[in-house]
Amino acid sequence: MGNSGSAVKVCADHQGGINWLSLSPDGQRLLTGSEDGTARLWSTADSQCRGHFQGHESYITFCHLENEAAFTCSADHTIRKWDVMTGQCVAVYRGHTSIVNRILVAKDYLFSGSYDRTARCWSVDKEKQIQEFRGHRNCVLTLAHYSSRDVLEEEEEEEEEEEKVSRDLLVTGSTDCTVKVWWVSSGRCYQTLLGHTGAVLCLILDAANRELFSGSTDYTIRTWNIVTGEQLKVFKEHQGSVICLELVNRHLYSGSADRTVKCWLVDTGERIQTYKAHKHSVSTLKYHAGILFTGSGDACARAFNSKSGVLQKIFRGHKFIINCIQIHNELLYTASHDGTLRIWDIRGICKRNKRRWRKERSAPSRSSQKGSLSRLFNNKVGCTVQQGNGE
């Protein structure tokens, strides 16, 4: 049974709920986007607020932080780019005609998805719309990006020359129950992935293995070959909408409105663990060093041993749903609709988890258990790789 933990710091500067939390690639800063229409920049070194970005005319739905620039999107139909050092707005991207609910930055591109049924591509530096992706029959909720170089062999690339110049593709998930793949250079739809019977809420891309995972309000997760568009597997055990996904070392973690997280072996489709104890929907999750951290509509964050499913700790203190979590330097950051960013020390459970792993691995083998111990060793090797990829 997990024990309760108290936050080492509570940041309550926002005047409205926090909808998203982004960590910079170098780990030095965090960005929060809020219902109060502002974003705030936080230092991970001392947890102090280092910037207050004001300019949106409505609430911020999502945010993304690079090392030198911050991006926010809003219900005011715009996206804004901010200078991290000065706090100044350096670009406003206009064109959407409804709420912009998701953004993604890749290379020199800024992608956005909106309730206006479109996704768009912008030049990050030139404040200019490059492409519009029109074809969904309802709002675009989630985005992913990859290059055909990541998934196609040279002999497989038979697209038009103009598309071979860029080779970038955008993936969009929509409430119209479809996933679409688009050529960025032309805006042409490359594939429409059909199978879901509910809104597509989340996407995870594994370009190296040519796979895309989509979670939906139809209670399922589906795996697709992103080259052929073929549906590979359907994961069906959830009893509620699939809200969030995390992929680590061929293990897929799915958080659901049914108050559970499930772990699946991607290669076989087998469900190998269910993480219970949540009293409301699982809204966000993050894997770190053999531990699965979750945020829930019950206002608690939790830490589970990812292998055994045992609840190790409950983080209590928020008053409303936890919308996003991040982990850096063995600190857990939780952002909630109660308007606070809370910081928790997770060194203790990380150390306990590592000690348990070492103890299990050093246990003497017995000839009668050779087969099962071999499988256990293989599992532990997998956990070692996951520790390296977990943040």
Strand content: over 45%
> Could you say what the CATH architecture of the domain at 17-94 is?
Beta Barrel
CATH class of the domain at 17-94: Mainly Beta
Radius of gyration: 21 Å
- Through-space gap between termini: 25 Å
Structure summary, number of beta strands? 33
Helix content: 10-25%
Structural class, please?
A: mainly beta
Mean pLDDT: 88
CATH topology of the domain at 17-94: Thrombin, subunit H
Poorly predicted segments: 159-165, 363-391
Count of helical segments?
3
Shape, per Cα inertia axes: globular
Sheet with the most strands, sense and barrel status: 5 strands, mixed
Biggest sheet strand line-up: 1-30-29-28-27
Which key terms come to mind for this protein?
Thrombin, subunit H; 391 residues; Quino_amine_DH_bsu; repeat; five-stranded mixed beta sheet; WD40_rpt; disordered C terminus; globular; four-stranded antiparallel beta sheet; mainly beta; 10% helix; 3 helices; WD40_repeat_dom_sf
Lay out the secondary structure:
Blueprint (H helix, E strand, L loop, with lengths): L2 E3 L3 E3 L6 E6 L5 E6 L4 E5 L5 E5 L6 E6 L3 E6 L4 E5 L5 E5 L6 E7 L2 E6 L3 E6 L4 E7 L5 E8 L13 H6 L1 E7 L4 E5 L5 E5 L6 E7 L4 E6 L4 E5 L5 E5 L6 E7 L2 E6 L4 E5 L5 E5 L6 E7 L2 E6 L4 E5 L5 E5 L6 E7 L2 E6 L4 E5 L1 H15 L8 H20 L2
Parallel strand pairs: 1-30
Antiparallel strand pairs: 2-33, 3-4, 4-5, 5-6, 7-8, 8-9, 9-10, 11-12, 12-13, 13-14, 15-16, 16-17, 17-18, 19-20, 20-21, 21-22, 23-24, 24-25, 25-26, 27-28, 28-29, 29-30, 31-32, 32-33
